[in-house]
Specification:
The complex is a heterodimer. Chain A is α+β, with helices and mostly antiparallel strands. Chain A has one domain. Chain A is built from 2 helices and 3 strands; from the N terminus they run βαββα. In chain A, strand 2 and strand 3 form a beta hairpin. The model of chain A has no long low-confidence stretch (mean pLDDT about 90). The longest helix of chain B is centred in the N-terminal third of the chain and has 20 residues. Chain B is α/β, with parallel strands linked by helices. In chain B, strand 5, helix 6 and strand 6 form a beta-alpha-beta unit. Chain B contains 12 helices and 13 strands. Chain B is about 40% helix and about 15% strand. In chain B, the strands form 3 sheets. A 7-stranded mixed beta sheet of chain B has the order 2-8-7-6-5-3-4, sandwiched between helices. A 4-stranded antiparallel beta sheet of chain B has the order 9-10-13-12, covered by helices on one side. The chains are: A alpha+beta, B alpha/beta.
Chain lengths: ~60, ~375
């Protein structure tokens, strides 16, 4: 299990990321949503980082 | 009281809207998108939910294409000024085309831009069939087209989707004023042939005054340039507004209570069914028009438009006198020019104005019958 932070440009994209994970039954992977310095972020704990990023990116979640 | 002024603002609102407003007044609320604490996150979640429900209502796939504003006038100004500036940035002085049935929230921004030399403006009148000439519109080859989805005076509308899509393929940006249509009939940028759909929260969506939105189609050739700049809770070290939606067009703290009310009202519309609401409002207008046609002291204007308000005049009383007489009997309507001067000029009511009856989602047959009974005695 790998824990990592996906940084989003604003809260809207963090919310969108959360929604995407919920819709795919992956809500349990999200361990925190909040500010990370000058951006917003999703703290995710998942077995496969690249797979999670692919899912989010395909749904239109923007990363910074 | 019989309220027939829903084109100005809807009344009553669904109970869920009132409950949501009370919650916002009494419960602690954070500033969405700024801080990372619980209250701020909850506020941001509520705003995102509102974007989702508005996106669903307007057939927009991605909720980030919903930009929240303070109302339809703000949305239209942001779209008209923002797209005009976008053309300037590309070295183009745009030709904007609109029509006589537009509200002043479209006309005045266009007149202001024309006066300062920021665009060229052409205002079209309907042909005999009530529609604008598709051939004329295409031959003008405009860069911007701004049309109402439904006139706030008579319900007049222009089914021009194919023509507008042709213009869009040429790089024209189409802006639709959905102030009277969103929440009252199926309405989406794609169905209209528009890039941008502008709407208020307090009319068909049954929220309160202070919130509205614009819905952007993802293939809009470019985003409107921001009309306002300020904090967005994002990209703070950038001197310009962020390049992505919705942040690019959302400067400053949003009116959370009004946005929540708009979202709750939009949910109500989806639950009740937009077709059901549209059918009900058309039926109320039909009853009004049928009843008035049997009263010789009245003259109606464009009653053939099935949706939207019914415009009429008493052959002897002024519109204001008639509206006052109706109010004495408990019926609230709007007399005057309805912020649509060119529509009244086109209809021949420029000298006097007229009276507008606008039923809403909660108007009943009984209320219509009482109104007609009162009108029959005047």
């Amino acid at each position: 299990m790998e824990t990592f932070i996906v940084r989003c440009p604003s809260v809207t994209y963090a919310q969108k990321g959360q929604k995407v994970l919920e819709e795919r039954g992956l809500r349990s992977r999200l361990t925190r949503i909040g500010t990370h310095g000058c951006s917003w972020g999703l703290e995710i704990s998942a077995p496969d980082r690249s797979e999670t990023l692919r899912i989010l990116e395909a749904a239109g979640v923007i990363f910074v | 009281m019989i309220y027939l002024d829903n084109a100005a603002t809807s009344y009553p609102k669904p109970p869920s809207v009132y409950r949501e407003l009370v919650r916002h007044i009494t419960a602690p609320m954070g500033n969405p998108g700024r801080s990372g604490h619980r209250l701020s996150r909850e506020a941001a979640g509520l705003i995102y939910q509102t974007r989702e429900v508005l996106a669903r209502l307007c057939g927009v796939k991605d909720p980030t294409g919903i930009v929240l504003t303070s109302g339809a006038t703000a949305s239209l100004n942001m779209a008209i000024h923002g797209i005009c500036r976008g053309f300037h940035r590309r070295g183009i002085l745009p030709l904007a085309v609109t029509d006589v049935f537009e509200h002043n929230s479209v006309l005045r921004p266009l007149f202001a831009l024309e006066r300062e030399g920021s665009l060229r403006l052409k205002i079209l009148s309907p042909e005999e069939d009530g529609n604008l000439s598709a051939g004329h519109l295409l031959s003008l080859d405009p860069q911007m087209v701004i049309l109402t989805c439904r006139s706030n005076v008579t319900g007049h509308h222009f089914p021009l989707r194919e023509t507008l899509e042709t213009l869009r393929r040429r790089g024209c940006v189409v802006i639709a004023d959905g102030a009277q249509a969103v929440g009252s009939e199926p309405c989406s940028p794609e169905a209209f042939g528009a890039d941008i759909l502008c709407a208020p929260g307090h009319k068909g969506l049954m929220g309160i005054m202070g919130a509205g939105f614009l819905a952007l189609r993802p293939d809009c050739p470019f985003l409107p340039e921001p009309l306002f700049s300020g904090g967005s809770g994002s990209a703070s070290f950038e001197e310009e507004m962020p390049p992505f939606l919705p942040d690019r067009l959302e400067a400053g703290t949003p009116p959370l209570a009004a946005i929540a009310a708009m979202g709750m009202g939009a949910s109500f519309v989806l639950q009740k069914g937009i077709e059901t609401i549209a059918h009900g409002e058309r039926e109320m207008k039909r009853l009004l028009a049928e009843g008035l046609s049997a009263l010789p002291q009245y003259r109606m204007y464009e009653p053939e438009y099935q949706a939207g308000p019914l415009l009429f005049n008493h052959r002897r009383l002024t519109p204001e006198a008639l509206a006052d007489a109706l109010e004495k009997e408990g019926v609230l309507v709007r007399a005057g020019y309805h912020c649509a001067p060119l529509a009244h000029r086109y209809l021949g009511t420029e000298e006097t104005g007229a009276v507008r009856l606008s039923p809403g989602a909660f108007t009943t047959r009984n209320q219509i019958q009482i109104t007609l009974s009162v009108l029959g005695k005047l």
